[in-house]
Amino acid sequence: MDIDKIREDFPMLRGLKMQGKPLIYFDNAATSLKPKKVLDAIYDYYASYCANSHRGDYDIAHRVDVEFEETRKVVANFINAKSENEIVFTSNTSMGLNMIAYGLMKELHEGDEILLSEAEHASNVLPWFHVAQEKNVSIKYIPLDSKGRLTLANLKKSLNEHTKIVALAHVSNVLGYILDASSFAKEIHKYGAYFVLDGAQSVPHMKVDVKEIDCDFLCFSGHKMLAPTGIGVLYGKYELLEKMDPLLSGGGMNTRFDMCGNVSLQVPPLKFEAGTPNIEGVIGLKAAIEYLNEIGMENIDKRERELKKYAIEGLKKLDNVILYNEDSESGIITFNIKDVFSQDAGSYFNAKGICVRTGLHCAKILTDFLNTDGTVRASLAFYNTKEEIDTFIETCRNGGNFLDAFFADE
Ligand SMILES: Cc1ncc(COP(=O)(O)O)c(C=O)c1O
Asked: Which residue in 96, 124, 371, 390 has its CB near the most CB atoms, within 10 A?
């Protein structure tokens, strides 16, 4: 991987400064930076063929339709779906998960159970709370092991004949552990339950193959994988998408309706895409996936693991850093500087030009498990470097005296 060339592709990595210091972007789990290829594709759409999709009979509208439907194929290939008709464009992971929760509601009955974990992001908890209240079903949590991992043994103990849906993050956005999703799918399907996979933190960083995993649904967000904000994907097995009710109604998702309220719906995926979609997002997503494919997801995965290992080795030598997930596989490092409130640490990192995330990271149930008011999360991407990690470690070294360090620089 030619890292200098890759960094040239990202305008924000070409010498940008923050607080007068070279920008170090370690908040990739929140959103990724965007390469020029993606920005150009969006500009090109607005500058040379801006039209609505699935509605016009003229040349530039046709070009939009071609790009739009091409993207569906590119996404289907990227996650190895059986067909592009299993790919629904959404606005983000949260929207996809809400659409599934709403769409499956009619299949739930009193006494049924939905299984989650304590490590889930709000977007994979709150839609299920809503469904549980509406349908009088219970939410249960698969216990985490002492490190915060989800194990097959604990899944087996939690499954029973009442389990109807199991919804889990493929990679936790706080602890960064990777779920053994295909083994989980096998167990879950023994009970006839649906397996919903939240891929917000996996799809951008590793090869995800829905056929191999055999999940029933997978949701992810474009903005975490080099594409613009406001575009996401809901993958569902076609026969399940056919059964599901659409959350949104409007133009584009019906074939006809009459004055008496009779409505015929489109078949999936269009059934779920009411209203003018995020066309620039779809076009940007295609460019993003092409860019990721050029580098190769295996190479991305390998590089991020190497960077993480390098960072952990450095951080472990410091006696003022508490690490919460040193052995997790992905590029997410969650820690605290001893005796420093996480948001104060965040301000200190900002003063040094380093972007990290602080607080509860939308996984509010996990806070009790970690027994902390909040943590600092540094999340790496393939375009980060060991030199940036060195600066980050040096910054952590002085983090205990963060106020002194802050003023010493003034
Ligand atoms: C594991 C996980 N699930 C869901 C989401 C929600 O993603 P979005 O805000 O793009 O809908 C996030 C965002 O950080 C996440 O990390």
From this structure: 96
